[in-house]
Each structure stands twice: as C-alpha cells, then as structure tokens.
Amino acid sequence: MKKILAATAISLTMGEPVFAQEGTGGGATPRSASSLSISDIQSVSPALGRYAQEDVIGNLWQRPQLSRRDRSIVTLSILIARNQAIDLKHYLNLALENDVTPAEISEIITHLAFYSGWSNAMSAVAATKDVFAERGITVERLPSASPQLLPLNEDAEQQRATAVEKNVGQISPGLVQFTAKPLFLDLWQRPGLAPRDRSLVTVSSLIASGQSAQIGYHLNRAMDNGLTADEAGEVITQAAFYAGWPNAFSASSVVAEVFRNRAK
C-alpha cells in the first residue's frame, strides 16, 4: 500500500493521471492504458477510451496467466523495441510498483540496445533517467558495468557458435565476432537479469518488431530457462494490444511450431 501511495503522490506532483491501483491478483494494475488520461482519449475517440478501460485495464491486466511483474516486463520490452516513448514513463512507474527493480530496468534497456537497436535504447535511457531522478534512484542501485558473469553453458554455447559460423560466417565475419562477444559471452551472462527474464525480454521484443524468424530459437531458450507454455502464449496476448494484432498472429504460428517440436 505504501508503494501505491507513493506512486499516487508522484503522479499528482507531475500533473499526470494516477496510474496504478492495487490489483486483485497481486501487484499494481494501471488505471489508464496510457500516459494520457481516459478523458483525453475519449475527447478524440470515445470508443478507444471504452476499449482501454474494458479490455486493456479491466481484462488484459487482470488475467492470471502472467504475473503483473511479468506483464510489466513484457510491456516495457515492447515499448522500447518499438520506440514508443509517449507511454514509456507511465509503464516504467508501473513496473517499479510491480517489483521490477531499477537494476532490472537498467538491464532490460541494456539488453534491448542489442535486440532493438542502439537509438531505441537511448530513447529509453532518456525517459528512464527522469523517472529514476523523480524517485531518487541513484547509480549505486544499478548493475556495475563489468560484473562477475554467470557461469557459461559450454555445450550450448558451442552449438550456438557452430550454427552461427555455418549460417553467417562466409557472409559477415564481423557479425559472427560480435554475436559471440559481447552478445552471448558477455551480455547474456550478466547477472542483473535472471536468464528466464532476459529471455522473456528478448522474445517480447522480437514479437514487437515482427522478427518471426528469430522467435523460435529464443523461445526455446526461454522455455529452457523456465518460461512455461501458458506464459509464452500470454506474452502473445499482451503483445496483441501493445504491438498490434498482425505481430501477435505472425508470432503465434512460430510459437505453435516450437510447442509441437518440444512435445515430440
């Protein structure tokens, strides 16, 4: 309750709509589907205001297939991947209320610099810097630049490296080099995000940007890291609202193939 009151105070101070209330399933659920108030949305599209209240807030964020923390991680990943800055502060504050830590948000942005592009990450840095300042979050609470890395799964890394060399080595040796390090030998081994959550961020961003060809490998990795089939299916549901129905349907066929192959 203290966290919700603090969030309310921040929202009122900033002159923005109060964005969160205690949810029935634990954690916070947004009062508004956007940094814009419902009245602002209704001033342009009454129907969109109704869908925002009835379907996004009243239904999607209440569904139990993903925790509110995971929903916040998925939503942040989608907004960063699509560079949708207008709502980023809104959902950053919600994520912090849903127990996504400042350190984890820092790692999400770092990770997505590689999976959605450097400038998208810089846009996220600009928004997050302000949210952190408003909440008194200092650099001492963030992951170090060069932490002790997690142990490497040598067999899995060898399989990955062999496949990349076979498929890309003759085309782009530089891509092979940077895919090994910093991507898989450094970024993926950073301890600031649990492997399951890092995979969740990656899959969410790939769905958001329509990169269906990359989803299969990373969804298998996510499920190896602990993401369940029900959770993976609900990521698609969340993405339908925040990244659009076409991206959700494009992902669904790839996800279905992963499920079938893992069931064999």
Structural class: mainly alpha
Instruction: Assess the beta-strand content as a share of residues.
Output: under 5%
Average pLDDT figure: 92
Distance between the termini: 46 Å
The biggest beta sheet is recorded as: 2 strands, antiparallel
Low-confidence stretches: 4-20
Q: What is the count of β-strands?
A: 2
Order of helices and strands: HEEHHHHHHHHHHHH
Strand order, main sheet: write it out.
Answer: 1-2
Estimate the global geometry from the Cα principal axes.
globular
Number of helices: 13
> Which percent bin holds the helix content?
55-70%
Radius of gyration: 19 Å
Itemize the secondary structure elements and their pairings.
Layout: H1 2-13, E1 20-22, E2 28-30, H2 38-44, H3 46-57, H4 68-81, H5 88-97, H6 102-115, H7 118-134, H8 154-168, H9 173-184, H10 195-208, H11 212-224, H12 229-243, H13 245-263
Antiparallel strand pairs: 1-2
Helix pairs in contact: 2-3, 4-5, 4-6, 4-10, 4-12, 5-7, 6-7, 6-10, 8-9, 10-11, 10-12, 11-13, 12-13
Q: What can you tell me about this protein's structure?
A:
- 66% of the residues lie in helices and 2% in strands.
- The chain is mostly helical and 264 residues long.
- It has a two-stranded antiparallel sheet with strand order 1-2.
- β1 and β2 form a beta hairpin.
- The longest helix has 19 residues, at 245-263.
- The chain is globular.
- Mean pLDDT is 92; it is low at 4-20.
